[in-house]
Amino acid sequence: MEKVLIAEDDLKLQKFLRIRWEKYKDTFETIFVNNGEEAINVLKQKYISLVITDIMMPKVDGMTLLGYINNKHPHIPCIVMTAYPPQRLGKKHSDDNLFRLFQKPFQMDELTEAILNAFEQDIPDGTLKGISVSSFLQMIQLEEKTCIFEVSSPGKEKGIFYFKGGIPYDAVCGNLKGEEAAFKIIVMEKAEIRFRNLPRKKIAKRINTELAGLIMEAIRRKDDYGG
Amino acid sequence: MNDHEMKMFEGRMTVIADSEIESIVPEFIKEWKEDVITMRHALDLGDYETIRSISHRMKGTGATCGFDALTALGTDLLECTKRMNKHAIAKLLDLLSSYLEKVNIVYQ
């Protein structure tokens, strides 16, 4: 189930969106928060497929939230909805970082379509099953691939791995990042691997160990602590 | 209704709304009416920030929920708030109040 996090301080708009998206409850789950601070707390705890944010919010505003996502969760697409003119958003968060910008007031159907399109960014039929994660990673390395993929395993948090030119670059699993996340993902059993489209954003390198070392450490940890 | 009201509300006195939001619209109207009272009070106190904040929100939410006139009034209120034009704000709040009393909502 896709999870959409919506950061919006206007409770009326929250209520309106909640009721209008009720009919999509089998496609995506909505999580509403009142400001950027609450959104960051959710992002630290849950796997989120898409973030929709207002700009002007109390405590932590939308710009700060976008900066956080850019840094910590660069794979998550973002939709910004604001009553301010786009030029006031500044260069820092221009088209490179944003998935889509909606000027308030907006057409509800267009926003919903943008959400559904964001989910479809995943490459169709790009799912692999029945292959061990470590074997798959070694194949990516051998082929020197640049790709991003999601690894899911029954009863475990989803993980995301990013390879650049066959080199493990970054990973995210629940609230773990970089190598710690990689260790969790590598030992996932009965894994399902699904490719995602590469984000337009630059992803920071948080993995500094070679793949062989990562796999060995992941297996050692699993043997020592049961994963 | 005077000429100004007629022009502002032309074609906007009836809102065609999706039946799925029928349960929340009466509450929204009530809250917008409360916003008018809050803004009138703020105007008396010269608290333009409160008026700016409420009208900014009204501008964004109004037409999204199908109430185009609220977006138009919210936009005008924001402009008048920037210029701290007390007289014009008072007039717009009267218009807003009148609109919220008279708006006819048809659910489809």
Features:
heterodimer, A: 227 residues, alpha/beta, Rossmann fold, 2 domains, 6-stranded antiparallel sheet, 5-stranded parallel sheet, 7 helices, 11 strands, elongated, B: 108 residues, mainly alpha, two-stranded parallel ribbon, 5 helices, 2 strands, 69% helix, globular
Question: Mind sketching the topology for me?
Answer:
The complex is a heterodimer of chains A (227) and B (108).
Chain A: E1 2-7, H1 11-20, E2 28-33, H2 36-45, E3 50-53, H3 62-72, E4 78-82, E5 100-103, H4 108-119, E6 127-129, H5 133-142, E7 147-152, E8 159-164, E9 167-173, E10 176-177, H6 178-186, E11 192-196, H7 211-225
Chain B: H1 3-9, E1 14-17, H2 25-45, H3 48-62, H4 68-82, H5 86-102, E2 104-107
Parallel strand pairs in B: 1-2
Short description:
The complex is a heterodimer of chains A (about 230) and B (about 110). Chain A has about 230 residues and is of the alpha/beta class.
Descriptive report:
Chain A is α/β, with parallel strands linked by helices and 227 residues long. Chain A folds into 2 domains: 118 residues, Response regulator (Rossmann fold); 99 residues, no CATH class. Chain A contains 7 helices and 11 strands. In chain A, the strands form 2 sheets. A 6-stranded antiparallel beta sheet of chain A has the order 6-11-7-8-9-10. Chain A has a 5-stranded parallel beta sheet with strand order 2-1-3-4-5, with helices on both faces. Chain B is mainly alpha-helical and 108 residues long. Chain B has a domain of 62 residues. Chain B is built from 5 helices and 2 strands. Chain B has a two-stranded parallel sheet with strand order 1-2. The longest helix of chain B is centred in the N-terminal third of the chain and has 21 residues. Chain B is globular and about 40 Å long. Chains A and B meet through helix 1 of A and helix 3 of B.
